[in-house]
Amino acid sequence: MRLISLAILLAFLKTSALAQLVTFNGTGNLPVPPTGTIGITQSPCTVTNIGVLGGCVTIDNVQINLVHTFVGDIGILLIGPGGQVLDLSTGNGGAGDDYQNTIFRDDAADFITSGTPPYAGTFRPEGRATTLPNPYTNAPPLGTRTFANTYNGTNANGVWILYINDYVGLDLGILIDWSITFNQGGAPPVADAGLDKSTCAGQSTTLTASGGGNYAWNTGATTATITVSPSVATTYTVTVTNPGCGTDTDEVIVSIDPPPAVSLSVASPDVCVGGCQTITANFTGTAPFTLTYKTITSNGVQTTFTESFSSNFVTFEVCPPAGTTLGNLQVLATSLTDALCTCN
User: How far apart are CA 158 and CA 181, in angstroms?
Assistant: First the structure.
């Protein structure tokens, strides 16, 4: 149970490091309009310690909770500390009521114009109007302006204003609350090319990097995982990039394991017809070993055998095949595999 709890904690910490969200709340419980049935409500929100937007620091979302009848008669716009204006929703919803904890995000699937009141859920800002007074234009395409292209490059520190223009009489409402959330989680990348490893000459091995969004290996590959087949010890370098957040590099060394070898010997070169001979095998490499060898009689009869051994020094018997007469019997190793490599 302790290990499970630790794994969950580590997963949470990793997620938090990638998504550092900071939320600031604007002034709530404001009448819309302030007096009468036509007018402008401005709710301030003071933002600190965020800095210049863009790259690693972005606006994650704006959330509003507004009770108002006939929302088609109001425009809701966001004004940055530098005076930049983004049209969140202007003149939408007709005779419907309310924005119920409505969230605006650049990456939402649908524009606010495709929803119906009460607006609840996540939407992309309308992004067409660029001025505060009504009438609000529908001429530019939806999403012409976004959080990113409106505010990136500006300093987020200061007073943001949620600007609500109730430009038609009769209907009233209350801005319950609103907030703006920034994402400071585009942390600089930390490249990790993985642990050093070894392989056999000419055989392939897989390298996997982590720590960023984009990858560039010194082999020219641009994926996190690559397959390499070095013939000599080789150093592979990966450059990891998070767009707008910098780069980092790391390297991994792939060394080459030596091929296995075997030396065969006999105590006596003679064997009687119908008898067997003990062969001594001295292996170089990493056990276990799989040895394929063949016997060749003086009249050319060849027989192939494969045996496995768990140590570097072993003995085994070789028996001439039935029908073998006087003459030579050769024993030749044809293939050898150890725990790491194969030698033919």
Answer: 14
DSSP 113: G
| Cβ–Cβ < 8 Å for 17, 188 | no
How far, in Å, CA of 24 to CA of 47, rounded?
6
Instruction: Return the amino acid letter for 136.
Output: Y
- How many CA atoms lie less than 13 Å away from 269 in the CB half-sphere? 5
Residue pair 64/162 in contact (Cβ under 8 Å)? The answer is yes
Pairwise CA distance, residues 52 & 70, whole Å: 37
Answer whether 189's CB lies under 8 Å from 246's CB: yes
Do residues 103 and 119 touch, judged by C-beta distance below 8 A?
no
Rg (CA), the chain: 37
C-alpha angle 127/155/49, rounded to 5°? 120
| Angle at the Cα of 297 from the Cα atoms of 294 and 299, rounded to 5 degrees | 135
Q: In the prediction, which pLDDT does 197 show?
A: 92
Q: Please give the angle made by the CA atoms of 33, 35 and 36, to the nearest 5 degrees.
A: 90
How far apart, in whole angstroms, are the C-alpha atoms of residue 195 and residue 183?
A: 32
Predicted TM-score (pTM) above 0.70: no
* Burial profile 206-220: b = 16 or more Cβ within 10 angstroms, e = fewer: ebebbbbeebbbeee
220: region left, alpha or beta (phi > 0 left; psi from -120 to 50 alpha): left
- The DSSP bridge partners found for residue 8 are none
> What tens digit of pLDDT does each residue of 104-150 get?
999 999 999 999 999 999 999 999 998 999 999 988 999 999 999 99
Categorise residue 151: left if φ over 0, alpha if ψ from -120 to 50, beta otherwise: alpha
